[in-house]
Amino acid sequence: MVRHFQAFYKKFSQLNKTQKTMLKYGLRCLFALTSASAVLAVIDMLHPGLDSQIPIIIQSLFKYGFYLWSVLTVGALILDFLFQ
Question: DSSP letter at 47?
Answer without folding.
Answer: S
